[in-house]
Amino acid sequence: MTNIFPLILAEGAPPGGNPLDMFVPLILIFGLMYFLMIRPQRQKQKAVQKQISEMKTGDRAVTIGGIHGLVANIKKTTVVLKVDDGTRIEFDKSAVATVTKKDKPGAEGEKAEDSSTEDEKK
C-alpha cells in the first residue's frame, strides 16, 4: 500500500481546505447582527437625542425613571420638570427618555387629564 497523503500535498492543496471558508459564516453572522441589532439601536438613540435637543418649555417629558412632567426650564445640561402644582424637579438632559410636543388648547389629552383630576378631587 502506498501513502496517498504525500501525493495530495505535492499537488499544493492544503489538507484542511481553504482557511477563508471558515471565516465566511462568522462574517455573515456579524453582518446579520449589525443590521438586526446594532443599527436600529443607533437610529433610536439619534431620534431621542434629536427630541432632547429640540425640547422647549411647555413640552411634556418622561424621564428614564418614569416621572412625567411639563418642561418648565431648560439649562445647558439640565432640565426642570413641573410634576405638580408648585413641585419642580431638576434632571440631567440624559435622564429624559421621551419628549412630546406641547398640546394644543382644548385637545383630547387636556380633557382627559382634567377629568381624571376632577375624579380624584371627589
Task: Write a compact overview of the structure shown.
With 122 residues, the protein is an alpha+beta fold. The protein is built from 3 helices and 5 strands, in the order H-H-E-E-E-E-E-H. A 5-stranded antiparallel sheet has the order 4-3-2-1-5.
SSE layout:
Elements: H1 5-10, H2 20-53, E1 60-63, E2 68-74, E3 78-84, E4 87-92, E5 96-100, H3 108-121
Antiparallel strand pairs: 1-2, 1-5, 2-3, 3-4
Name its key features.
alpha+beta, 5-stranded antiparallel sheet, disordered C terminus
Structure notes:
By secondary structure, this protein is an alpha+beta fold. It has three helices and five strands. The protein has helices spanning 5-10, 20-53, 108-121; strands at residues 60-63, 68-74, 78-84, 87-92, 96-100. Strands 4-3-2-1-5 form a five-stranded antiparallel sheet. The chain is rod-shaped, with a radius of gyration of 30 Å. The N and C termini lie far apart (101 Å). The model is unreliable at 106-122 (pLDDT under 50).
